[in-house]
């Protein structure tokens, strides 16, 4: 499970990384929490609320398991038609055994993209999008900390993930590829609390 991440980079570097011309009201964040408006990318940058609301759950769904995309009627359509990128500079995870907090980054990438799916809620006056991160079984160093991890996409695959029509091939590609992570153990004094 991933319940915190970071997008701590200047706007110019973010625009260069995704080859875009503008972002509205961008502010770097050292720690992003569920329920907040987060920067996402479909065709252009957009802000979405982190967590998809569903009738049968008390809490918003912030993470969606890639393994259940096709067995759960709830997520299949989102994965097929509403995929997005979630830009990040790091994500945080707590060791399930000793509760130490770790900051994880991608080797050789200051900014990386986490795979997301979203849902749009409309009323007469507003349109609100809610997003959930896709997660997979932890691999490599990450498996020593936690059983789950966000799906980090190779940069060369981002556009296919966003606009590719063959969702089954996209699904299969995600299972076969793994991005190397670097981790830093954070001391208690560096913990952030709500």
From TrEMBL:
Please indicate which superkingdom the organism of origin belongs to.
Bacteria
Which UniProt keywords are listed?
Covalent protein-DNA linkage, DNA damage, DNA-binding, Hydrolase, Lyase, Protease
Q: Mind listing the GO biological process terms from this record?
A: protein-DNA covalent cross-linking repair; proteolysis
Enzyme class, UniProt record, top EC level: hydrolase
Q: What is its EC number?
A: 3.4.-.-
Similarity section: Belongs to the SOS response-associated peptidase family.
- What name has this protein been given in UniProt? Abasic site processing protein
UniProt source species? Finegoldia magna (strain ATCC 29328 / DSM 20472 / WAL 2508) (Peptostreptococcus magnus)
């Amino acid at each position: 499970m991933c319940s915190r991440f970071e997008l701590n980079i200047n706007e110019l570097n973010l625009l260069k990384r995704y080859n875009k011309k503008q972002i509205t009201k961008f502010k770097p964040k050292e720690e992003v929490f569920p329920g907040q408006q987060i920067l996402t990318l479909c065709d252009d940058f957009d802000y979405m609320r982190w967590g998809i609301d569903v009738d049968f759950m008390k809490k918003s769904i912030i993470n969606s398991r890639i393994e259940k995309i096709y067995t759960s009627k709830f997520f299949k359509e989102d994965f097929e038609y509403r995929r997005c990128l979630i830009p990040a500079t790091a994500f945080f995870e707590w060791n399930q055994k000793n509760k130490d907090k770790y900051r994880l980054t991608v080797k050789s990438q200051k900014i990386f993209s986490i795979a997301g799916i979203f849902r749009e809620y409309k009323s007469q006056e507003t349109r609100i999008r809610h997003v959930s991160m896709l997660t997979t079984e932890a691999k490599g160093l990450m498996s020593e900390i936690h059983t789950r991890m966000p799906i980090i996409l190779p940069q060369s695959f981002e556009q296919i993930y966003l606009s590719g029509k063959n969702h089954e091939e996209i699904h299969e590609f995600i299972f076969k590829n793994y991005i190397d992570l670097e981790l830093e153990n954070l001391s208690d004094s560096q913990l952030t609390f709500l």
